[in-house]
Amino acid sequence: MSLRSLTSSRRIRDIFGNTTQLLRLVWQATPLYLVLSLIVTGVKALLPALMLVVNKAIVDLVIANWGNSDLDWQPFIDLVVMRFALSLLGGILNQVNLYVSQIFNDKFVLYANYVLLEKAIQLDLAHFESAEFYDTLSRAQSSGISYPQKVVKTITALFGQALTLVSLLGLLIQFNWTIVPLLFFTSLPSFWTSVIYSGRRYWMMRRETQAGRLSDYLKQVLTQQSFAKEVRLFNLGEHLLREWRGIRQDFNSKSAVIAERYAKMRGISGVLVSIGFYFAYGWTLVRTVAGQISVGDFTMYTGAFSQSQELLPAILQNIAQIYESNLYVSQFFEFLSLKPQVIDAVYAEPFPQPIRKGLVLQDVTFTYPGASKPTLCNLNLQIKPGESIALVGLNGAGKTTLLKLITRLYDVESGMITIDDIPLQNISLPELRNNIGVLNQDFARYQLSAKDNISFGNLTKRDNLALIEEAAINAGANRVIETLEEGYQAILGKMFKGGVELSGGQWQKIGMARAFMSNAPILILDEPTAALDAIAEYELFEKFRALTAGKMTFFVSHRFSTVQLADRIVVLENSRIVEVGSHQELMSNKGLYAQMFGLQASSYNL
Ligand SMILES: Nc1ncnc2c1ncn2[C@@H]1O[C@H](COP(=O)(O)OP(=O)(O)OP(=O)(O)O)[C@@H](O)[C@H]1O
């Protein structure tokens, strides 16, 4: 099915497609202000028709008493007071409406953002490693929040406009019922023009998501600290800026084509609207001159005509707007409908305390989503409690991937990982993760206080300064923090005012302290010494046994001095475990490990 026919067939259905879902969201966000907003809008909507009726009564009263010297002023006073009261009420309701909509919007935006972020934390790491996910996220973020808000605003306005229109049509029908379809049919082309062109714009925007994200990414490269150094050293600035501008200009020209066609069609359909109005206007004039209706009626009907004439296209325009916004709102719900694949156990078994038998990999195979061949294939391994394992292999061998499976950032494709015979899937996810301390290869550098950076390793102990200090000492991070004027309260990184930037190795020590924060029986250290200087590495070795005593430890390292610390070394190659044993055993095997060790040792002997 072509994109265009898809658009047409979905158009009508999509006009109010997500409205029920959206109204439920609004109701959850702020029921009180939704009701208040509808009441204020509803009352305000009836004022124009009431005003026209009072005006007609005033005009007719004036004409009836034209030149009368002995007239009773009371009916005049009553009508003018009524008119004043109506306009006063209109003014007050305008102010109340402004206030209510402000609070209503603020509450709704907060709630919609909350729901979006809440969904983001429920999703898997796999989502964050896929381009399609970023397209969905980017669409949900860029239009997702503003459009639900727009739809709600438009629906409330539409509700008010519909009430006003019904009350005005109630007046017009007394004049002649055929006037109503006349007004309607002359406004219809303008409505369809809006629907068709807003649809085209939406699909264009959707097709451009990838390009939009690329331009946003280039903007980040040009403006963020992490790229600032290389952008300057490699003179990338001008080149990337040109690329960015090219993408934006391409988008603008596509947008301009649609805007131009839309403007032409709007112009043509606008002429039809005017023809309808002047036809009805002339008709009323003829009947007034013929004495069939009063002058008061003439002012009332022409007022009702002109207001309906403005209102009807505005209503149709708003319906078209709801259609357009609904398309964008669907992107918000598209994001909310994403489901995690790594699912928490429904009837969870407790994490074994202490671990008695150990962790077992049975025929574990894993393929990344979208990859053509497995990254890990039929892995079998038993790790005893308290044992330390070093994972060794060339770049891309799958070491980090294996650690992702143990922490259930991904689930195995086939085979099983168990702890004391309990499959990982049967342990509650938060409990599993509470029992594993982790230092990732690409550990996070939170631009927050040093205390936060360390205590995030065990949130339940976030105010236990003694524990935080102990973790910092174990990781060698205490000396970094001692140099900071504000100690543990110092903000790390340069993103916020007063923040202090650390070196790569200093950051790594902070990351390691985070891993040491919990008393977890399993410890995972992915490249723990990669950024450490020789002294820091030596000090860590000295403490390593004490720090990992009693803990099942997995660590990945390309430094063989570190690897030798492990009880056993597991060598990965071509998706499989090719060697397992102690340093001495593997050296005497003269396999891949011995070969890699030899190469590294020879480079030091130079
Ligand atoms: N999110 C992902 N999606 C698809 N493929 C991935 C993903 N992450 C890693 N890979 C691929 O899986 C393979 C193993 O990657 P992994 O990060 O586990 O290797 P590693 O042994 O830790 O490498 P290194 O020593 O460079 O850190 C690589 O070929 C990599 O391209």
UniProtKB/TrEMBL annotation:
It is found in: Cell membrane. This is ATP-binding cassette, subfamily B, bacterial. It is a multi-pass membrane protein. PANTHER family: ATP-BINDING CASSETTE SUB-FAMILY B MEMBER 10, MITOCHONDRIAL, ATP-DEPENDENT PERMEASE MDL1, MITOCHONDRIAL. Keywords: ATP-binding, Cell membrane, Membrane, Nucleotide-binding, Transmembrane, Transmembrane helix, Transport. It holds the Pfam family ABC_tran. Residues 35-324 form the ABC transmembrane type-1 domain. GO terms for cellular component: plasma membrane. The chain crosses the membrane at residues 32-53, 73-93, 151-173, 179-197, 268-286. GO terms for molecular function: ABC-type oligopeptide transporter activity; ATP binding; ATP hydrolysis activity.
